[in-house]
Structures are given as structure tokens and as C-alpha cells.
């Protein structure tokens, strides 16, 4: 098992249909000890019931819009779980009106909120994890992004801009943490029916288009994305950093 003896932190768990859960299951199946963080607004009992499927798993409340909250969370994790080998950043949010309306109508507050939670949080998490010394040698960080960061996807709007900021941040972070032999990459997953996807107008149409035009003529699953994340957490990917890896059955290579 490629993650035997490693501890992986999954940040942003919500439910079993999420990509984060697919990553958690794959990491567990590959031998990792898996722990989680969730937003304070999530119901504790719901989260506990979900993660009970993975023996020994525990979730910690963490509001990533606050550096102080991230630090407190990480210090607690380090004290209770020891150092970790990998972090999954599965955190994004934009106000509904900023997704449903044309991008030109994005509010200043909405723009700031989406980029803070969806992109800057990765910078803060990476920096604070290093500051509290909770990362083991050659730790690997993985974030989740989407094709809407590269091309205009109807209904993705502000989130596409936030994911573009996330992707560029990964490249600069890779340079910084590479000095200490740590790595960071992102997975650009094909569209998946998650709770977050419900916020995208006409999402079902996107699924239909991908199935029709992708070279493999299928939509991806959370398990497939999870397996790529496990690879990125493992030593098998020890020379890979600063990359945006598409897991979309080839859809992103298709032109007109």
C-alpha cells in the first residue's frame, strides 16, 4: 500500500458524495491514517457518523477564513495526532448570487469572499502548517480545482476566477516549500455531482457534454480522483510539484 504509515489530513469534509470523501477512502485503502477538518457550521454529529466508516478517524472544526482559527486547529491536531504527511485542500465558497448572475455583476464583497475562502486559505494553511511544524519531511499538499479556471464555463463565473488564483498560488507555493523538499499540486477534476455542484446553473448539461466529448466518454468518479490524490501523497510522485493534473477522462484536451 503506497501510503502505509502516513497520516493524511482532509480539509473540508462535508458528506460522502464529496470529492474529499473519495480522497479519504482512497487514502485509507492505501494504508494511510486519515483525519479531517470541517467548517464550524457543519453538524458535528453528521460528520462523526460519516467518518466513523474509517477506523480511528477524527474531525476538527476549522474556519479557514481566520489565521488564528487555523493555527489553533493545527496545534490541536499536532498535539493529538502528531505530525502529518499530507494535506488535502477541499475548500471553496462563493455567494450564490455571485454564481447565478453574470460575472460582470460580481460584488466587491463577493469577489473578496470567494478568493479569500477558495484561494487564500491554501496559502494560509501551507504557511501555518510550516510555522507550527506539523509537516513531516517530504510532506505533500494537494488542492482541488476545475477546468473553469482555464476556460469560461457557463455558470461557474466567480468560482472560475477564484480557482485561477488557487492554481497560480500553487506554482508560487511550490517554489517556496520546495526549499524544504515539500511538494504541492492540484487535481483539476472533471464535473462530479456533489453538493457544491448544485450551486452551478444547468450543471446536468455540463455532465452531458463531458460524457459526449471526452475521449473516454465517461464522467469521472470521486474514487478516480481520490486515487490520483493518493498517488500525489505518495513517494511515487516524489518529483512532481507545482502541477495541475487533469482527471477528467481527457475532456480538457478537446478543442472545437
What does this 3D model show about the protein?
With 256 residues, the protein is α/β, with parallel strands linked by helices. The chain has one domain: NAD(P)-binding Rossmann-like Domain (Rossmann fold), CATH 3.40.50.720. The chain is 41% helix and 16% strand. The protein is built from eight helices and seven strands; from the N terminus they run βαβαβαβααβαβααβ. β5, α6 and β6 form a beta-alpha-beta unit. α3 runs parallel beside α5 and α5 runs parallel beside α6.
Describe, in short, the structure shown.
The chain has one domain: NAD(P)-binding Rossmann-like Domain (Rossmann fold), CATH 3.40.50.720. The protein contains eight helices and seven strands, in the order βαβαβαβααβαβααβ.
Overall shape: it is globular
Average pLDDT for all residues: 94
E-strand count: 7
The residue ranges in which pLDDT falls below 50 over 5 or more consecutive positions are none
> Helices and strands: which structural class?
alpha/beta
CATH class: Alpha Beta
Q: Nearest-angstrom radius of gyration?
A: 17 Å
CATH architecture: 3-Layer(aba) Sandwich
Keywords summarizing the entry:
about 260 residues; Rossmann fold; 7-stranded parallel sheet; about 15% strand
Write the layout of secondary structure elements.
Layout: E1 7-11, H1 19-29, E2 33-38, H2 44-51, E3 59-61, H3 67-81, E4 84-89, H4 96-100, H5 108-131, E5 135-145, H6 158-177, E6 183-189, H7 203-213, H8 222-233, E7 244-247
Parallel strand pairs: 1-2, 1-4, 2-3, 4-5, 5-6, 6-7
Helix pairs in contact: 1-8, 3-5, 5-6
